[in-house]
Specification:
This protein has 320 residues and is of the alpha+beta class. It has ten helices and 13 strands. It folds into two domains: 135 residues, PurM-like, N-terminal domain (60s Ribosomal Protein L30, Chain: A, 2-Layer Sandwich), CATH 3.30.1330; 157 residues, PurM-like C-terminal domain (Phosphoribosyl-aminoimidazole Synthetase, Chain A, domain 2). A seven-stranded mixed beta sheet has the order 8-10-7-11-9-12-13. It has a four-stranded mixed beta sheet with strand order 3-6-4-5. It has a two-stranded antiparallel ribbon with strand order 1-2. Strand 4, helix 3 and strand 5 form a beta-alpha-beta unit. The protein starts with a helix and ends in a 12-residue tail after the last strand. 45% of the residues are buried. Keywords: ATP-binding, Kinase, Magnesium, Metal-binding, Nucleotide-binding, Thiamine biosynthesis, Transferase. It catalyses: thiamine phosphate + ATP = thiamine diphosphate + ADP. Its EC number is 2.7.4.16.
């Protein structure tokens, strides 16, 4: 099967039909129609076999995760996902693998109201690069640069489940059958908080999604906003599955440095805290205040209640 037959067979109709796609897959480029009064938000993410996923991963789960991790970046900026482009590098054409991967990609794109509109295929070591494009009302994108001293720091959902799910996959951790399904679901099939991210346009001063662990990601906001922060580890939202499966020090490590949560991390001024419950409760996603922004530029302080919490972040680095 050649390149163009591969595209036509597996990716020509990935995702829902969108009226703003004038020309999609199959041409030299996509032609897309932007809404009046909206800005374009673009993000790119690459997943490499052996670095970001196991060689024997379920290809349907891989298609799901590739879409979700990109859409999660759009959600963090308050954008509505719209269009996807895929650069796919394959060592060979495995039609059964491609069929499952394309199905996972298409059903997840459909869930987030996206359409695959183009990309590229090449021969080489297995790697996947996706470019996701979304739209946000003009001037309303949430960035990492707006946090102010005194703002409260929030996260959605629970932290650390995906990291423990990875350990289970690697045979480095054990858990009960009761919790294993939850942890593996969080690792293989994360969710992007799209609707909640759009709601945050009305209250958040800054935001980002959590892909590299809280201690790895929060400093990006601190640098961009020229502020500091403190986090109370006792306020970290931990699932019952995580708490039942490991002791507290390990649970804190998973939540602080584990990564792949794809929850939203955001800051809110005190004047807007009162509206959070009303604004976010319709989405059914819990959110937790875990700390505050300080004036100590670039400094992230961890506390356990009123006491300092001694912890050394050890997150993943592509180029240590």
């Amino acid at each position: 099967m050649g390149e163009f037959e591969l595209i036509a067979s597996f990716f020509a109709d990935s995702g829902i039909a969108r009226q703003d796609v004038i020309v999609g897959v199959g041409d030299d480029g996509a032609v897309l129609q932007m809404r009046d009064g909206y800005d374009l938000v673009v993000t790119t993410d690459t997943m490499v076999c052996g670095t970001h996923f196991f060689p024997d991963v379920d290809p349907r789960a891989l298609g799901h995760k590739l879409v979700t991790v990109n859409v999660s970046d759009l959600a963090a900026m308050g954008a509505e996902p719209a269009w996807l482009s895929l650069a796919l590098t394959l060592p060979s054409v495995d039609e059964a693998w491609l069929r499952q991967f394309a199905a996972g990609l298409a059903e997840t794109a459909d869930y987030y109201n996206c359409r695959l509109v183009g990309g590229d295929t090449t021969r080489g070591p297995l790697s996947l690069t996706m470019i996701a494009k979304g739209q946000v009302p003009r001037g309303r994108a949430i960035t990492r640069a707006g946090a102010k001293v005194g703002d409260y720091i929030y996260v959605t959902g629970t932290l650390g489940d995906a990291a423990l799910g990875l350990k289970v996959c690697q045979g480095q951790a054990q858990t009960s059958k009761k919790h294993q399904a939850h942890l593996l679901q969080r690792f293989h099939f994360p969710s992007a908080r799209v609707a909640l991210g759009q709601a945050l346009r009305n209250v958040a001063s800054s935001a980002m999604d959590l892909s590299d662990g809280l201690c790895g990601d929060l400093p990006h906001i601190l640098r961009r906003s020229a502020v500091g922060a403190y986090i109370d580890v006792h306020k970290l939202p931990l699932s019952q599955a995580l708490k039942d499966s490991c002791d507290q020090p390990v649970a804190f490590k998973m939540a602080l440095s584990g990564g792949e949560d794809y929850e939203l991390l955001f800051t809110v001024p005190e004047s807007k805290r009162g509206s959070l419950d009303v604004l976010l409760s319709p989405y059914g996603v819990p959110f937790t205040c875990i700390g505050r922004i300080t004036g100590a530029t670039g400094k992230l302080e961890l506390k356990a209640g009123e006491q300092p919490f001694d912890y050394q972040h050890q997150g993943f680095l592509h180029f240590p």
